[in-house]
Write a structure and sequence with these properties.
The complex is a heterodimer of chains A (about 220) and B (about 190).
Chain A lengths: L1 H14 L2 E9 L11 E6 L10 H11 L7 E3 L1 H7 L13 H7 L3 H9 L2 E25 L2 E22 L4 E22 L6 H18 L2
Parallel strand pairs in A: 2-3, 2-4
Antiparallel strand pairs in A: 1-6, 4-5, 5-6
Helix pairs in contact in A: 2-6
Chain B lengths: L2 H16 E5 L12 E7 L3 H4 L2 E6 L3 E6 L1 H15 E4 L8 E13 L1 H4 L3 E14 L4 E14 L6 H23 L4 H12 L1
Parallel strand pairs in B: 1-4, 2-5, 2-6
Antiparallel strand pairs in B: 3-4, 6-7, 7-8
Helix pairs in contact in B: 3-5
Classes of the chains: A alpha/beta (about 220), B alpha/beta (about 190).
């Protein structure tokens, strides 16, 4: 019996995985001095349809700072506050031409120069639940309680990162990630979730690819 | 504890469970902008600095949102960056700014079917010169939203959206102040004197 339960659990664990596809489009060569240059990762916020979750943006920034190719990443909150109100949802530049126009103001150019920014990475996209099925019912009585059933849902994540070279004032390239996975919540007395970590896997895939894109030129 | 006390305790617990109080305690960064070469006085009346949005609706529940300190912080921060000097009285200032809350609205994800908490704020900003003559009367509307995260409380969502709406007000005030036709006319007239 125990062997059967372990076997069934293993199947669920296998089923609750996600697939990640990363694509890259290079427009110009990249070059970073890991000893002095910095980067900043910002989420697009001009429209709810493109707004990346704050924790996804933080996660990608963390990934960029890790490993042998780790680079110094300016926290997005620190950058946006220092440049307030020029990188707010209403005012953040949507194009390099607009950024160049903003930088005609000396006060703004100096504030960005102080951060020694080499690349600005814009992230847009989101993770959403596209389908759900099954059912779960739970009861509580004076004699005790418990749940019975099986719930499942599918998550899909789509994100795109645009890498702006702040020195050359060009777009270096774009990296996109698509991920999907099915999560299960079986319950026999106690619900045991088997979650597909769609957003986390998207973050890791995107972070590693951006890091390699910038460092390996 | 007798029966009457028990009833009172249960009633209080019930009332507490149906109402919520959220205090927006946000601090705001100083705007990065070249200041106008003028002295300003920021007139913040008591009803502004102690402002609370109080809602008592059957279908939405009781909610109190304490906004006074947060918008006091915002206007102080923005006005101190917009002008070279701040005055302690209207008589010694080139311009006096007096904000008031015109409207506060919010929407919950369960009401809109979206994944966001949303807040709309509208302020009226009156500007007068050193003689008390009106220079401008400006309505500013700000919007903020905060993502509905898993296991996040309603209070955290509303606070996040309100803070974003206040930042939006600060953005418009900072970048739009000198562009307002009445303010622009006043600045031009001052330059010619």
């Amino acid at each position: 019996m125990i062997k059967s339960i372990v076997h069934v659990s293993s199947l669920w664990l296998l089923a609750a995985c996600s697939t990640v596809t990363v694509d890259q489009m290079r427009l110009t060569e990249t070059n970073i001095d890991l000893g002095s240059d910095t980067v900043v990762v910002l989420g697009r916020q001009h429209s709810p349809a493109y707004e990346a979750e704050a924790d996804l943006v933080t996660c990608v920034a963390r990934e960029l700072g890790q490993g042998a190719m780790g680079m110094e990443v300016i926290p997005d909150g620190q950058f946006v506050d220092a440049l307030y109100p020029w990188f707010e949802p209403r005012t953040a530049p949507l194009s390099l031409a607009r950024l160049e126009t903003l930088l005609e103001q000396q006060i703004l150019q100096k504030a960005i120069d102080d951060f020694e920014i080499r690349y600005i990475i814009w992230i847009e996209g989101n993770t959403e639940t596209t389908d759900s099925s099954g059912g779960l019912s739970c009861t509580i009585s004076p004699a005790g309680g418990g749940c019975l059933g099986l719930g499942m849902w599918e998550d899909e994540a789509t994100y795109e990162a645009s890498v702006w070279d702040f020195h050359a004032m060009t777009e270096s390239g774009r990296i996109s990630v698509d991920s999907h996975g099915t999560s299960y919540l079986p319950a026999v007395i106690i619900p045991i979730p088997f979650l597909a970590r769609v957003q986390t896997n998207s973050c890791k895939g995107l972070g590693k690819q951006i890091q390699s894109f910038i460092v390996q030129g | 504890m007798n029966f009457r006390h028990s009833i009172m305790f249960v009633s209080l617990a019930f009332v507490a469970g149906c109402s919520s109080v959220h205090t927006i305690n946000a601090e705001f960064p100083t705007p990065l902008v070249d200041p106008l070469q003028k002295t300003a006085f920021l007139d913040l009346p008591e009803e502004f600095t102690t402002y609370q949005f109080i809602q008592d609706e059957e279908d939405r529940g009781d909610i109190t949102i304490i906004l006074g300190q947060a918008h006091k912080n915002l206007f102080s921060s923005v006005v101190s960056a917009l002008f070279t000097d701040l005055s302690l009285s209207p008589e010694t200032a080139d311009i006096t700014l007096r904000p008031e809350v015109n409207a506060f609205q919010y929407a919950l994800p369960k009401e809109t079917g979206s994944t966001f908490y949303e807040v709309w704020l509208k302020y009226r900003l009156q500007a007068t010169d050193a003689d008390g003559v009106e220079i401008a009367d400006w309505l500013i509307t700000g919007y903020g939203r905060a993502t509905d995260e898993r296991l996040q409380s309603e209070g955290t969502g509303i606070n996040g959206a309100a803070e974003e709406a206040l930042r939006d007000i600060g953005t418009q005030l900072t970048l739009g102040f000198a562009q307002q036709a009445d303010i622009e006319n006043w600045l031009n007239a001052e330059m010619q004197q």
